[in-house]
Amino acid sequence: MEANLLNKPSTFNNQFMNGNEAVIRRFYTAFQQLDYATMNSCYTTDAVFSDPVFGLLQGEEIPAMWEMLCKTAKNFSLDFSDIQLLDEEYATCKWVAGYTFSKTGRPVVNNVKAHMRIRQGKITEHTDKFDLWKWSRQALGIPGLLLGWSGFIQNKVHRTATRSLEKFMKAEK
Question: Which of 3, 53, 62, 76 has its C-alpha lying 20 to 30 A from 35's C-alpha?
Answer without folding.
Answer: 53
